[in-house]
Amino acid sequence: MDIYERSKFADAVKEQKVVAGEKIITKGEEGETFYILLEGEAQATLDDNKVVMNYGPGDYFGELALLRGEPRAANVIAV
């Protein structure tokens, strides 16, 4: 990325704080946001609360719904 591209990216980024137990993404919703986890942990779960992915600092999620134009495939919850 050149300086201009980094600047445009930085302008689009917004920090959002959540607490443990808070749902970040709800399965089936339209995807409008991509997330990068700065600190803490999150888990992706399916309807039966089966954990299918664990996220930690530096991990990202939410990109597939944006790229594919499909509804969210899982819930993501802060832990």
Count the E strands. 6
Strand content: 25-35%
Global geometry: globular
Helix content: 10-25%
Radius of gyration: 13 Å
Helical stretch count? 2
Q: Tell me about the biggest sheet?
A: 4 strands, antiparallel
Strand order of the largest sheet: 1-6-3-4
Q: Write the element-wise H/E pattern from the N-terminal end onward.
A: HEEEEEHE
Mean pLDDT: 93
**Span from first to last CA?**
33 Å
Uncertain regions spanning at least 5 consecutive residues: none
> Structural class from helices and strands?
alpha+beta
Short recap of the structure:
The protein has 79 residues and is an alpha+beta fold.
Search tags:
20% helix; 2 helices; 25% strand; alpha+beta; two-stranded antiparallel ribbon; 6 strands; 79 residues; four-stranded antiparallel beta sheet; single chain
Give an overview in words.
By secondary structure, this protein is of the alpha+beta class. The chain has 2 helices and 6 strands, in the order H-E-E-E-E-E-H-E. A hairpin with a 5-residue loop joins strand 3 (42-45) and strand 4 (51-55). The termini are far apart. The model has no long low-confidence stretch (mean pLDDT 93).
What topology emerges from the helices and strands here?
Elements: H1 3-12, E1 23-25, E2 35-36, E3 42-45, E4 51-55, E5 60-61, H2 63-68, E6 75-78
Antiparallel strand pairs: 1-6, 2-5, 3-4, 3-6
